[in-house]
Amino acid sequence: MEPDSIAGLDSKLLDSKQATGQPKLEIKQSRIGLWDFFEEIEVDRARFALAPLLQKLHEVAECLPYLARMFKDVLSVPGCAGLMMIYVATQLGEAIVPAFSIWFQGQFLSITQAAIETRTVDKERLFFIATGQLACTVAEFFLARIQRKVSTPLNGRIRRWWALHCFHAHARLDHPTFMKSDVKRQLNEIADNYWGQSVIWCTLDLVFGLVSIFMKLVAQALVLVQVLRGQRDGPLLVILTLASEGIVHAARLPFFQPVRVWLAKNVNADYTRMRGWKDVITYNGYRKEFVAGNLAEHATSEYKKAAARVGDDDSEWNELEFDILWPLPSIWSVFNQPLLQLPQFAFILRAAQSPTSIPLSLASLSLVQDAAREFAWSFRVIVNSTWNIESRLTSVKRMYEVVEIVNEIPDGKVPFPEEASQIRHGVALEFRNVSFKYPGTDRYTLRDISFSVGPGQLCVIVGANGSGKSTILKLVTRLYDPDEGVILLGGHDIRTLKLHDLRQALSVLFQDYTIFPLSIRDNIAMGDPSSSDDDDRILRAAKLAGADTVVDKLPEGYNTYLEPSVSIQYSGVREGQTTFTGRKVDYKPLKEAAGIKPSESTELSGGQMQRLAVARTFMRSVVQEDSTVGLLLFDEPSAALDPAAEHDLFERLRNLRGNKTMLFSSHRFGNLTKHADLIMYMDDSGIRESGTHDELLKADGEYAKLWKLQAAAFV
Ligand SMILES: Nc1ncnc2c1ncn2[C@@H]1O[C@H](COP(=O)(O)OP(=O)(O)OP(=O)(O)O)[C@@H](O)[C@H]1O
User: Fold this and answer.
1) Do 189 and 291 fall into the same domain?
2) pLDDT tens digits, 594-634
3) Please, which of 15, 17, 18, 175 could form a disulfide with 479 given CB 3.0 to 4.6 Å?
4) Does residue 154 share a domain with residue 86?
């Protein structure tokens, strides 16, 4: 289907673009398979605009200091300087050796020519040339081998250093900053790993490659001059060869290939449904409900119906994209070959006109042409690589910028507490007229919240789903800062306290707690990194949280990984495939030999997982007698626990009363609320009622209503 322009689409935007000196744009729409394809077309695009070239140069210049810094950093990585010197030396060797090879080839041709003409051979020279040629071949072989040998450990060392840099760049970011889409993009960019090669290695390789090819160009030019010396009509042949190669290559040079900006949108509902069903049967996360819902037959029939309606158009976008990126060759490509043979034609014609003026032998003719072609090719490689260098260097710049991203939550300066004894028996918490909207939203999640909890007191927040209970806990931990009002801990505005100290004084269990893809031991230990080697403490935390009985039943106990990040790798041969000897491939013996269970991950129930999460919280706050924690925050800590486990948990926590300040968000009444010093009932972003259990029952408001509702269920 021929593209047709969408009249009036975004015309306002186009006007404003023109006003700022940008080329005028038109958007063309076409249908490719089941996709609507939109592409920007620069209407008045100059064939070769200088401005983008200058812009590119400017960007490259901006990146150069980062490149210098990268070289300095890489050289300071232990063991890299020596390897890098060897690597550079081999690159230079690879640049020069081909020129020598061409020179020896020329010498060989001239000695052959002399032998034919004079019937004598200068044996010494012939031996010298043969040795030289052999030496070149051997040198090329060894240079390539050495380069390969050196590049593996060099890349490895750089990659390790680089991985640490990236790890630090990721680890230092706070929650709102990490969630920003442009930061995510930037982090993704620096994490790019091209088949095990980091951005740094690719950049180094590109820079060295450029230097090497430039040297090759110079060496080839010198050889060409040497070969041409004394050859009449040689320069004419060189010019003709370079011109014909130049014309053919020029069309492929990046200046003449416009940057294509496009998007494609699927417009077929059946295709979307087909893909949806395919995901349902493919991914782990859907399997439980898929099986429980008895969906196999339904899924197959729905998929079949959708596939039938889609018919032959079911190509994936990347199949279709190939045709866009690599369109059919143009008619001009037919003329490439004759164009490349132009020099020979010219020579034949010249030979026909005046045979005596042709001094070059056929051998020299071919040598000169080969050298000129190599020269043209090297030139093209240089242009292409230089064209890409800007994007490579920009990656280097970004990788250094990423560690300078300013966190959204600024650090405070005041150490907290001044003395550990100040918070040993809990710490006071106060919200003063706090209002808060989540970044990117217009609605207040909390509006004008004020309350205060004394040291060692127990406070429970209850209320409807989405009323803002968890958000209060997030603000105390400074995952976010309020838009208005102040939060005080021990009388200090928490924004003034050092973030590390603040978080050290808190212990928090979120509702959507995470079990990290680490061993159970590590998962519990990270509750208190300072005693992560203390197995006794880990065991005690697990026991107090009721997690010990769960862990003891696992074959690998505390070393169990619930969701390992590294999965087992299998050969590409399919289970059940028949081998040459007629054997059916079966992985079972291999699995048994390797001690692999049928399922690679270990599943725990929701309540068992919650016990692990509670154990992590206890690691720092409950187990440790000399705990530096003054405030415990729990968001629905018992949501998944059975009644006995919940009772035990609350019993333990109640024993801490007077020793720690505790703030709970909960939907459960009774166990906790009866003992609370303060209950806050939240609704619609604000605190509607507050007081003790008895006070709120007397008030007979919403809390009393909910309490009676829950109590009635047990009558
Ligand atoms: N990261 C976020 N970005 C935007 N809005 C959010 C975010 N997290 C929560 N919200 C919104 O803020 C409101 C309060 O959420 P919050 O989790 O504090 O409620 P909650 O009282 O703890 O609810 P529940 O009882 O269901 O746990 C909800 O409307 C929720 O949709």
Assistant:
1) no
2) 877 766 667 788 889 889 999 998 888 775 666 778 999 99
3) 175
4) yes
Residue 677, phi then psi, degrees to nearest 5: -80, -30
In this prediction the ipTM stands at 0.98
One-character DSSP codes across 31-47: EETTEEEEEEEETT--S
Which tens digit of pLDDT belongs to each residue from 418-469?
887 778 888 999 999 999 999 889 999 999 999 999 999 999 999 988 999 9
Are 302 and 218 part of one and the same domain?
no
Residues 651 and 528 both lie in one domain: no
Residue 187 lies in a domain: yes
Distance (Å) from CA 219 to ligand 1 centroid: 68
Going from the Cα of 472 to the center of ligand 1, the distance in angstroms, rounded, reads: 10
Nearest CA to ligand 1 atom 24: 465
Q: Is residue 410 part of a domain?
A: no
The CA 403 to ligand 1 mean position distance, Å, reads: 30
CA distance 17 to 7: 17
* Per-residue buried b or exposed e for 460-496, using 16+ beta carbons within 10 Å of the residue's own CB: bbbbeeebbbbbbbbbbbbbbebeebebebbebebbe
Q: Is 445 in the pocket of ligand 1 (CB under 6 A)?
A: yes
Secondary structure (3-state) at 456: coil
217, 158, 166, 208: which is closest to 187 by C-alpha?
166
Cα(179) to centroid of ligand 1, in Å? 16
Q: What is the pLDDT of residue 179?
A: 87
Helix (H, G, I), strand (E, B) or coil at 30: strand
Count of structural domains, the chain: 5
Asked whether 441 lines ligand 1 (CB < 6 A), one says: yes
Q: Which residue's alpha carbon is at the smallest distance from atom 31 of ligand 1?
A: 466
Alpha-helical segments (H) within 494-554 = 499-504, 520-525, 535-544, 548-552
Residues 492 and 398 in one domain: no
Residues 615 and 562 in one domain: yes
Which domain does 455 fall in, by range? 424-505+630-715
Q: Is the CB of 377 under 6 A from ligand 1?
A: no
Question: Kind and range of the H or E element at 26?
Answer: strand 25-32
Residues 522 and 619: their CA atoms lie apart, in Å, by 11
Confirm or reject: Cβ of 565 under 6 Å from ligand 1: no
- For 448: left if phi > 0, alpha if psi spans -120 to 50, otherwise beta; the answer is left
CA distance 334 to 329: 9
Q: Is residue 274 part of a domain?
A: yes
Going by the DSSP 8-state scheme, the letter that residue 329 receives in this structure is P
Indicate if ligand 1 lies below 6 Å from the C-beta of 685: no
- Substitution site in 469, 474, 483, 508 for ligand 1 pocket (most atoms within 8 Å of beta carbon): 469
Which parts of 235-375 are beta strand (E)? Answer: 262-266
Q: Would 358 be classed as within a structural domain? A: no
Residues 228 and 278 in one domain: no
Query: Where does residue 396 rank: exposed (0-12), middle (13-18), buried (19+ CB within 10 A)?
Result: buried
* Interval between CA 699 and ligand 1 midpoint (Å): 28
